[in-house]
Amino acid sequence: MHIVVCIKQVPDSAQIRIHPVTNTIMRQGVPTIINPFDLFALEEALALRDRFGGTVTVITMGPPMADAALRKALSFGADRAILLTDRLFAGSDTLATSYVLSSAIARIGQETPVDMVFTGKQTIDGDTAQVGPGIAVRLGLNQLTYVERIVELDPSLRRIVVHRRAEGGVQVLETRLPCLITMLEGTNHIRFAGMDDMFRAARAEIATWGAAEAGVDEPGRCGLRGSPTVVKKVFAPTPRTEKATPIETSGKSPQEIADAAIDVIFAAKPSLRSEMAGRRQAG
Amino acid sequence: MTYTAPLADMRFIVHDLGELARVHALPGFEETTPDLVDAVLEEAGKFGASVLAPLNEVGDRQHSVFENGVVRTPDGFKEAYDQFVQSGWNSVPFNPEYGGQGLPWLVATAVSEVWNAANMAFGLCPMLTQASVELLDSYGTDTLKRTFLPKLVEGTWTGTMNLTEPQAGSDLARVRTKAIPDNGAYRIVGQKIFITWGEHDMAENIVHMVLARLPDAPDGVRGLSLFLVPKFMPNPDGSCGVRNDLRCISIEHKLGIRASPTAVMSFGDDGGAVGYLIGEENHGLEHMFLMMNNARLAVGLEGVGIGDRAYQLAHAYAMGRVQARLTGSADPDPVTIIHHPDVQRMLLTMKSQVEAARALAYFVAASLDVSRHYPEEGVRAHHDGLVALLTPVVKAWSTDVGIEVADLGIQVHGGMGYIEESGAPQHLRDARIASIYEGTNGIQANDLVGRKVARNGGATARDLIALMRELDGPLGQSANEHLRVIRRELSRAIDELEAATVWVVQTNPKDPRAVAMGAYYYLRLMGTVAGGWMLARSAVTALRKLSEADGDPNFLHGKVLTARFFADHLLVRSEGLKRALIGGGWLLQDFVPEDHL
Fold this sequence. Notes:
heterodimer; A: Rossmann fold; 2 domains; 7 helices; globular; B: alpha+beta; Butyryl-Coa Dehydrogenase, subunit A, domain 1; Butyryl-CoA Dehydrogenase, subunit A, domain 2; Butyryl-CoA Dehydrogenase, subunit A, domain 3; eight-stranded mixed sheet; two-stranded antiparallel sheet; 20 helices; 12 strands
């Protein structure tokens, strides 16, 4: 099995603070981390490798400092890491990013065929969830998004069955390798890095690929030039005007308090009562 | 009762205060890069927070249980220990020849702080193994090393220290356990008490380091030899063979660290346990002292770790608990108690002392690495002296800080702090042992004034004082008001330490008992001043980083304010400590214990 995991280095949003006076984001001293959603993809890939054997290759596109995210991935046990970095890539939107990543995966596949590509559900800084599907389409891979569990995998028959969380239920999907999976959060726990892997990660020579090495044959399709998405304006949403409705709780039982809360909700949105009653009847 | 490893402060000390730079430059530590150390600290923090910390309260409640000759550890401990070993955490500072990671003591110290804070009772097990590894690596024969070191370094076997007997506590001259030569090995017969992790179910084998007396040995401490006595005799293939003639008779019921089994061990009920000599006959205690120096630093780290845990708990409570309007405020609404000045005083007393003790312990750990690895003998010797001087200070001062901070942690909680479910009492109960074992803090104070200060006429203490005074330049270069106050108070406190040192050196030859009477004050004085020095260094560095817009400004401002608080509230204790030291000796002339106590 050869599995490629795509990760992204992002600012640790948990440590971003808002300046108390200017209300602007304070970027100073905010550390970077691997996009938390990508860790579920990485762990799933590592677990498959541990079970079936093979290699996990981790790639990221970013500035030279994204090297740190790759070392982190190596310390968790990834076998190999490649940094895609080039001035040409700067300013890429999801279209351009998925072009660069799919070019690089195709190049990686020329050395050793790729059986599976994993990405996280989305990133915590862009929140688009577009890059995984973008890669799948460009590489002609079967795509399985929002996967919460891999139920069956038979590498010899090249068959995979997954549970995909969808609105209103769980879909059981079956497809054939090679495929691309975007992994849902909360599906596993990233393992602890062991001392041996931490040393290996610190010693590792991380391969750095520019546009040429990554097989990017149309430079016009990456970076700002290849990115039709433009952020025109960033604004803070105005706070909603509705007032909170207090519910008297003293001397009341939990049942009474719950009933009172439900009454308030239905009063605010009368249609909800009939909708819920309908669903209840439908079971 | 969550725990978060204080990675920001750890990194600040290791990187910004330059401790790692001192160590990284040493031969053999080229691989200990800032990135590697960051990765190690982060993973240690994760492991401590998510695996060890959740077991802390369970361990306290269930505690280890002795039944039918075996000790059962609390639920989850064995699995956590297996994971600890698998991740390679047991082997951090050890010799790579036997499977160790070969990382410096600086890193091992920071990592062990996490274990102590997350779960002190658990952390004791690897701490004792570490002591056994050091003894064996330094004094064991090649055969013993090959047989036992790989397992102990890996952690699949654990180690213990068997010193204490019922009549031989602080006074090891009274040890009676016998070692009888028998076909190249020895038969060990006797009883030992207070053996930390002396029996348990987390490892395949337990390797006891036992102080015992040969038949023709002289009386006193010069007649003690050190023996390695395994629970199971090892087979040639490294597996565990027959059971040796030793057993656990019971375990103690303790105030704290209840998950850590404190065993009464009986050796030789059926003719004698097989033991192997470590080092030279009758030099056992000397050998033991090598290990005890590092163990004393490790126990000092327990004070830092528990103190930090208690601080985190109290801080979280103070952030959430709403009580009373703010004094002097027109707003009638009650506020979270963290806004009340007296609560801030308590939290800052906790935070500043924990951070001072942490920085001092890491400084000493880095100095230990320099003392062992620097290419020039003179530099090694200089640092060796500094480490020897500060080791009893780190042990005793930091553990006292741990107790004071855990006590304040209860106080911040108010009435809830007296309730076990708040988690605050366990920290105080756990912290309480650290000022007693590994040489009581009184014994540390006697060691400091006698062996470390008076014996060389105060030379090493004067070196330390000179080193502290070097900071006066950088402190004076800034117009910052906080630095101005810190500089003034630190300078005064160093003066007090210097005067106290002169008094100790002059008084000790003619009246050693008067010095012993105040030794504890002298140790507290040195700890307080050294701690203030560490925080002053932090303030200088934090202000520089702030001016360069390098790092989290809230954290850096916090460092400056914390140092200022320590200067105003704690460094000022120096004068009182010096006066108690110098003025307290009269008691010995006028006081008759039989009549007046």
